[in-house]
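Researcher: Structure for this, please.
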Amino acid sequence: MSQAPTQTWSDQQRDLAKRVATAMLSNDLYSQSLGMRIVEAEPERCLMALTVGEQHLNGHKICHGGAIFSLADTAFAHACNSHNLTTVSQA
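Model: Predicted structure, token format:
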């Protein structure tokens, strides 16, 4: 089985990705209101975390799918915008 090639990023590119993710989250009141935090951010990759609390639970007392999707959507947005070029997705 072949592996995908590994990209080597410069320190400047890594620093830019971290600064972009931090700036994006600081302007994203929705993600902040859910309690999301950045664990790692680098070019084309972002790892986010969310501690699930009672406010994130659905009627079955398990994490609401909307909270999970929001976390994934925010991490995806940070990864896509990590080069500081405004990017949105569709479809």
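Researcher: Any notable elements?
Model: DSSP finds three helices and two strands in the chain. The chain has a mean pLDDT of 94.
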